[in-house]
Design goal:
Elements: H1 3-7, E1 24-38, H2 40-44, E2 52-53, E3 60-74, E4 86-97, E5 100-110, H3 113-122, E6 127-136, E7 142-148, E8 154-161, H4 173-178, E9 182-187, E10 190-197, E11 204-213, E12 227-238, E13 242-243
Length: about 250
């Protein structure tokens, strides 16, 4: 879908589109959303003090998202050969700043060194290089492996969708977990944010088996099964990073 068509659909967003033109796009494929509930106090000391933990019915959540990026390029420019397609793994929680909901990343691992260096330098995000593979075994089953260079994070999991796609309603947990359009990060004691936009997620229920999971080292996951969702593909538009002036 063309960006102009995506920008015409905004009714699913929790807040309006950002001002100004988008500058970068990428497509996320074979996305698994794996989420675990946690008490607020388990996360509060692991995020910047200027941010508040966002909760759904007084419960905080932490998520692991493996997926495959392609068609990664700046506006008006073609994708860079051999640098526009790669697997990625995100570890995130949900926060608010002055009432505006967003994402805070504990880590982002990617199998593309140029993307890692660029994101760390220009977007102040905790990216790490990792050896990764996302293998689509058949129409449904996916195997994802990730091992961070230097150690500290390793994942081996199998996942697949188990339902038809559906659009979630705004008051549901599924909407709250997935329809996020801002990220927050800090750099040299300053808070930054970046806005994105895409169509509403075409979610599916999912099944997953974590054979190895050391992606979250600073927080102990609860001994409950995660809530799992899958999305086949989503084209995403990005706006520039902004520093919040207090």
């Amino acid at each position: 879908m063309k960006p102009e068509s995506i920008l015409r659909h905004t009714e699913h967003r929790p807040f309006p589109l950002p001002r100004g033109p988008w500058f970068m796009t990428q497509t996320w494929n074979h996305v698994l959303f794996a989420h675990w509930p946690l008490p607020v106090e388990a996360l509060q000391n692991h995020i910047p003090s200027c941010l508040d933990i966002d909760t759904y019915e007084e419960t905080a959540w932490i998520g692991i998202l493996p997926f495959f990026i392609d068609q990664f390029h700046a506006r008006f420019l073609p994708p860079i050969p051999r640098a526009s397609s790669f697997p990625e793994l995100n570890v995130r929680t949900y926060v608010k700043y002055r009432g505006i909901p967003g994402i805070y990343f504990f880590s982002l691992d990617a199998a593309q060194l140029l993307a890692v260096k660029g994101a760390r330098t220009f977007f102040h995000l905790p990216y790490f290089y990792a050896e990764m593979e996302l293998d689509r075994v058949d129409r449904k089953n996916i195997i994802f492996t990730s091992k961070r260079e230097g150690g500290g994070s390793e994942i081996l999991l199998h996942y697949r969708p188990v339902s038809r796609p559906f659009a979630c309603k705004k008051d549901t947990l599924e909407y709250w977990l997935t329809e996020r359009y801002r990220l927050y990060t800090t750099h040299k004691k300053s808070l930054y944010f970046q806005d994105i936009h895409h169509l509403q997620w075409p979610l599916q229920r999912a099944a997953a088996s974590f054979r190895k999971n050391s992606a979250i080292s600073c927080i102990e996951l609860p001994s409950v099964s995660p809530i799992l969702h899958y999305a086949d593909s989503q084209k995403v538009l990005f706006w520039p990073m902004h520093r919040i002036r207090k």
